[in-house]
Amino acid sequence: MGTYRIKSICLSDPFAADMSLLLFPIIANLTQLTTLIINNIESNYIEHIVNHLSSLPLLSSLIIISIDNIKNQNDIYYKIFRLPTLKYCQLLIETLRYLKPLSIAKNEFSSIEHLVINNKASINQLNSLLSYVPQLRRLSIGYLDGYRYNRTHKSSIVLNYQIQVLRINMSIVGFYYLDYLNADQWERLISTYMPNIRTFVFKHKFRSYYQNIDRTAYKTQISKFNSLFWMKRQWFFEHQYGRQKRSNVAIFYSINPYKKYYMLYEKLEKKIWSYHFEITEHSIHHIFIHNTKAMTQFVGNFPNITELTLSKSFDVLRDSMITNLNRIIPLKQLTKLTLDCLRFSFEQL
After folding, report:
1. pLDDT in tens, 218-248
2. Is the model's pTM score more than 0.90?
3. Where are the domains of the chain?
4. Cα gap 316→122, rounded to integer Å
5. Contact (CB, 8 A) for 197 and 166
6. Of 74, 52, 76, which is closest to residue 64 (Cα–Cα)?
7. Is residue 37 within 8 Å of 25, Cβ to Cβ?
8. DSSP string, 264-305
9. What pLDDT sits at residue 259?
């Protein structure tokens, strides 16, 4: 078969490095390629491949997952946003240091409609990136970092009218942990800039090694997420506070007891107070398990599960994992398995 007929390529560890060297001589002939997956290979090869993506005239779906730190993260963002036919983009390209955000887009805009960023990103970086994607309909941020934010440099998330699905996972270390738990601000943001939004998935985790969390202030803040605005959209939230690895931790996250999927998170080592919705386990058909600890802690089972997703923080497989999984879900019933975890070999699978 001629290379001009190839529509999809996946370069994945352990052979991706050798395959990427073979890709360069033929990339100009891949005129029908629509999907490219670059999975778990070294950053040097990724940077070389990205430099050649403009030679793919029909590329509409791109996944890039690096196993080490990228040196020129902004350069990769910029080159990807210049691809004229790209609709779906999923990235995990960590960097060792915080970089200055890209300049706000003025004359160059991307065709991307579904963007997934699983590497760490600050609010400023996110705002700059979003300025390049005015046609965005679905956005997922795996690690929105609030570590460097204080009241002097605080900024707001700027989104556009096209957004229909928004998923944000936020981690805060330090002060001002309530700034992004303001229900009134989220309500105004959604009402003003995202009137078409259908799905809102939000997780806010605050960790402090020195600072005690004001439980009264925290509860007062999150109680505002119970207003009519959130209820009529069937957006519900749970929270827990306690100790984890010698630090104070407060977690606030969205759930939907009426949906057919469920997010399984780990519980804190010492839970002091929490609030949970009752779920109907028989109605759940798709479960997301965030790590092995969440799996071992869970008491109960989901008898009608047909789809399983293991998130990127999921640990390497152990013999006991199959036993624990089978306790929660009927493995023989599965019709779809998604592995988002970063370290998962073929032998373990």
Report:
1. 888 889 999 999 999 989 888 877 766 667 7
2. no
3. 3-261, 280-349
4. 28
5. yes
6. 76
7. no
8. EPPPPSEEEEEE-----GGG--EEEE--HHHHHH--S--TT-
9. 64
